Amino acid sequence: MDISPAVIAVCNRFDADNDLVLEIVNAFVDLSSKWNLMRAALAGHLHLVQRLSRRYPNKFQHCCQEAMDSAAEFGHLDVVQWLHTNRHEGCSTDAMDMAACNGHLEIVQWLHENRTEGCTSNAIDFAAQYGHLKVVQWLHYHCKAQATHYAMDNAATYGHLEVIQWLHAHRVERCSQSALVNAINAGHEDVAKWLVIHCKSECVGKMGFVEYLARRGYWDVAALTAKHPYLQELVDADEIVLTDDDAREMHEREFLRLWNAAMRRGERTVLQ
What we know:
Protein name: Ankyrin repeat-containing domain
Structural class: mainly alpha
InterPro entries: Ankyrin_rpt, Ankyrin_rpt-contain_sf, SecEffector_AnkRepeat
Shape: elongated
Low-confidence stretches: 240-248
Strand content: under 5%
Organism: Phytophthora palmivora
Pfam families: Ank_2, Ank_4
Helix content: 55-70%
């Protein structure tokens, strides 16, 4: 990056530890079109956010909301606070959602106490996905935040067993069949085994575990259970789930019963 001769002159003349250096250097900064309020906020450059906002008070209304969202997402609480105090555009629910996603609990708490936008189900879903258990717990107890099955599903993908256990004990969304397959695919054996023991009904699901596996490319169920013996319990439970279907689905259920039996034997014959 080229350095302006003016900046070099200032740095050579003053002690680099002097607070005055930043102020003087800022006076020579090229505020070209490559810098706007959102980019400065995203990078956490509070002094640049202040300078841009004061120099061009009417220029950045269209991106100021995104500026606070971005500052929250990347953990720049001082920027969030300054924008809240000195600008009127505010933020969106993305601010708390993305702060939660990245584990910035202090920002989540500040937004909850000082703003009214709140969050969406993405806050807990994202925080769980990336293993931020303290954020998940705080949102649960203080914001009454919503969530979806993606919280447990994606936590399983990334191997966050402690998060999964807490969600299972304290939330009602549970997981989908994807959670187990996600854990298997990612090599999280401890998560997969825990799900089989504690979330059997969710893992089997309405579709049936064997059919679900086949739709995900696991045609040879016998080979899969040989590699992961703990899955046999779900395979064996599949027929029990199927017999609970409504009578009008009996024809489909019979087809699935025959198809499941063939899959258990490792056959790939197409039933006619």
